[in-house]
Write a structure and sequence with these properties.
With about 500 residues, the chain is an alpha/beta fold. The chain has 15 helices and 22 strands. Strands 1, 2, 3, 4, 5, 6 and 7 form a 7-stranded mixed beta sheet that branches. Strands 18-19-20-22-21 form a 5-stranded mixed beta barrel. The protein binds S-adenosylmethionine (SAM), iron/sulfur cluster (SF4) and FE3-S4 cluster (F3S).
C-alpha cells in the first residue's frame, strides 16, 4: 500500500499535511455569487506543505473578487500559476520540470502569463526571471494582495516581481475559498513565518518573521466553516506552540522580560481551547508542534475537550543531542523524550508522529543509531522521512560540510523507513478488535463499495460504506490493521 520514493519520501494515505499524491494538484472553484467574470481564466497548481495549499486558497479568493474564473486545464488558461516549495532541492527541480513543460502554453497563446508564487519565488526573487525565461510574474508569500496590480503590469508586457516579506501580513480578513476540498475537512492558518532558525531549513528565509493572526478572525473563519457544514479543521503554523496574539499593538514584537500571558495575550493553549468551545461538533487538529515549545498546557487542553483529536505531530529530526545542537533545534534527546512521556501520561490514547532527516552534516553511524533507538523507544505511529538536502543560504550550508555521501544518506533513510513501517504495522495490529469513531471523508481509493475516513488518532480507516455518507461520524470495529490503514466494519 505504501509507496516509497526515496528522493522525497512521504508515507501517503495518512497525511497530516499534504500527501505526495496531492503535490502539483490543480484546483478550481466557481465564481462567488454576485461577481461577474472578467473573461479571463487562471490555472493554479500547488506544491509543498498545507500552508502553501492554504495560500493557494487565499490567492483564489483574491482573484475571484477580481472576476477571474478558474480552470483545471492549463491549456485554456490566460494565467498559469505555480505555487512552489523550496524545502528540498528535488521540490525545486519538480517545479523547473513543470515550467519546461509549460513552454507549450506560450507557443499556443502568446499573451498567456506564467506566474511563480510561494517559497521558491521568495528564495530566488528576480533571479527566477533570468533563469526561467517563460516566467512573467514572481510573487512571494506575503505579496498576494498585490496580485491584481502585478497581473495588470504583466499584461502590459512588463515582467513583474513582488517578493517583499511583511511583519504584519496574515491575510486575516481574507476568507480562503476551499479549493479541491471534500467539504468535510479544511485548513485554517493561524500564523505565518517562522522565528526558529533550524540550521537545515529554508522556511525562515522564504516565509519571513513569525506573526500570529488575530484569534477573533480565526474564530470567525471557524464559525464560517461550521456554518458551511465542515466537520474538521486543522490549525496550521510552522510552530503552533509559539502562537501569541496580543490585542495591544504596542506589545507586538517586543521582548518584555515580564510579558506574562494575561488577558490581552492569547497563547496557543488559549486559542485551542477557544476553538474547541466555538465548534464543539467539529473535530480539531493542529500542525506543527515544536518539541522545545510544546508544554503541558496544550496537552491538558487536548485532554479536556473531546473534539480535539488524539494525535500529536512532534517532529524530532534526529535522536542524537549533538546533532540536534548542530541542527539548532534547541532541545536535547532527553527533553524530547520528556515531552513524549508527558503526551503518554496526559493523553494515553494519542498517537504520536514525527519528521526525520537522515544524513545531516557530520552525522556518524552511532548518531544514526541514536535516531533508530529513539524511534523504538517512542514507537511512532507515522513519520515523514527525508534525507538531508542542503539549502543555499541556510546556517548549515554556511557552517557545515554536507559530508555524508548520498548513498549513505539513502541507506540510513531506508533503515529509518523500514523501522517506521515495522512500528506502524505493530501499532495498527494492536488496534484490531477496537472500535473507533470515524469521520467519513470519501470513497476509498481502492473500491467504490468502501468509504474511508480517519479516527481521532489520525489513522485512515477503510470500511464497507453501508448507508454512511461523507461527513458522517460512524463507529467502526477494526478487523485488520495493515502498515498504512485500518480495515473494519460499521457497528
Ligand atoms: N515547522 C515544522 C517543524 O519544525 O517540524 C516543519 C517544517 S518543514 C516544512 C517539514 C520537514 O521538512 C521538517 O520537519 C524536516 O524534517 C524536513 N526538512 C526541512 N528542511 C530540510 C532539508 N534541508 N533537507 C531535508 N529535509 C528537510
Ligand atoms: Fe523550519 Fe525549524 Fe521553522 Fe520548522 S521550526 S519551519 S524546521 S526553521
Ligand atoms: Fe511549505 Fe515548502 Fe514553503 S514546505 S513553507 S512550501 S518551503
Amino acid at each position: 500500500m505504501t509507496a516509497f520514493n526515496l528522493d522525497d519520501l512521504k508515507l501517503d494515505f495518512k497525511a497530516k499535511t499534504i500527501d505526495e499524491s496531492r503535490q502539483g494538484e490543480a484546483l478550481s472553484l466557481d465564481l462567488p455569487e454576485g461577481i461577474e467574470s472578467n473573461g479571463k481564466k487562471y490555472y493554479i497548481e500547488s506544491y509543498g506543505c498545507a500552508m502553501n495549499f492554504n495560500d493557494s486558497e487565499i490567492v483564489a479568493s483574491i482573484l475571484a473578487k477580481e472576476g477571474f474564473a478558474s480552470t483545471r486545464d492549463f491549456n485554456e488558461a490566460d494565467l498559469v500559476f505555480i505555487n512552489t516549495c523550496s524545502i528540498r532541492d528535488n521540490a525545486e527541480q519538480r517545479v523547473r520540470n513543470k515550467l519546461n513543460n509549460y513552454g507549450v502554453i506560450k507557443k499556443r497563446n502568446k499573451s498567456a502569463i506564467i506566474g511563480v508564487l510561494g517559497c521558491m519565488a521568495e528564495r530566488l526573487k528576480e533571479q527566477f526571471l533570468e533563469q526561467e525565461k517563460i516566467v512573467d510574474l514572481v510573487v512571494g508569500p506575503d505579496a498576494y494582495r498585490n496580485l491584481p496590480e502585478l497581473i495588470a503590469e504583466a499584461e502590459s508586457g512588463q515582467k513583474s516581481v513582488n517578493v517583499l516579506l511583511s511583519r504584519e501580513e496574515t491575510y486575516a480578513d481574507i476568507n480562503p475559498v476551499r479549493l479541491g476540498s471534500n467539504g468535510v475537512s479544511a485548513f485554517v492558518s493561524i500564523m505565518r513565518g517562522c522565528d526558529n532558525i533550524c540550521s537545515f531549513c529554508v522556511v525562515p528565509f522564504t516565509r519571513g518573521r513569525e506573526r500570529s493572526r488575530s484569534h477573533l478572525s480565526i474564530l470567525a473563519e471557524v464559525r464560517d466553516l461550521q456554518s458551511k457544514g465542515y466537520k474538521e479543521i486543522t490549525l496550521l503554523g510552522q510552530n503552533v506552540d509559539s502562537y501569541r496574539f496580543s490585542e495591544n499593538e504596542k506589545l507586538k514584537g517586543k521582548k518584555l522580560i515580564d510579558l506574562k500571558d494575561s488577558d490581552d495575550v492569547v497563547n496557543f493553549a488559549n486559542l485551542l481551547e477557544l476553538v474547541a468551545q466555538e465548534a464543539p461538533k467539529m473535530r480539531i487538529r493542529f500542525s506543527t508542534s515544536h518539541p522545545k515549545d510544546m508544554l503541558d498546557d496544550v496537552l491538558h487542553v487536548m485532554a479536556k475537550y473531546d473534539n480535539i483529536c488524539d494525535s500529536v505531530h512532534l517532529p524530532v529530526q534526529s535522536g542524537n543531542t549533538e546533532l540536534l545542537k548542530k541542527m539548532n533545534r534547541n532541545y536535547s534527546r532527553e527533553w524530547y523524550l520528556n515531552r513524549i512521556a508527558a503526551i503518554k501520561r496526559i493523553l494515553p490514547e494519542a498517537t504520536i508522529s514525527s519528521d526525520f532527516i537522515a544524513g545531516f552534516c557530520t552525522e556518524t553511524e552511532e548518531q544514526h543509531q541514536d535516531t533508530l533507538s529513539l524511534m523504538e523507544t517512542v514507537r511512532f505511529d507515522f513519520s515523514y522521512m527525508y534525507y538531508y538536502s542542503e539549502r543555499p543560504g541556510t546556517l548549515a550550508a554556511k557552517r557545515y560540510e554536507d559530508d555524508v555521501p548520498l548513498e549513505t544518506k539513502k541507506r540510513r533513510l531506508q533503515e529509518i523507513i523500514d523501522l517506521q513501517n515495522k512500528l506502524a504495522r505493530e501499532s495498527h495490529k494492536a488496534d484490531e478488535g477496537k472500535i473507533f469513531e470515524v469521520l467519513v471523508e470519501g470513497t476509498s481509493k481502492k473500491s467504490d463499495e468502501d468509504h474511508q475516513g480517519r479516527n481521532s488518532q489520525n489513522n485512515m480507516v477503510i470500511f464497507p460504506r453501508k448507508d454512511s455518507k461523507v461527513g458522517d461520524l460512524v463507529m467502526v470495529k477494526i478487523l485488520k490493521g495493515t502498515q498504512s490503514v485500518l480495515i473494519g466494519e460499521i457497528v
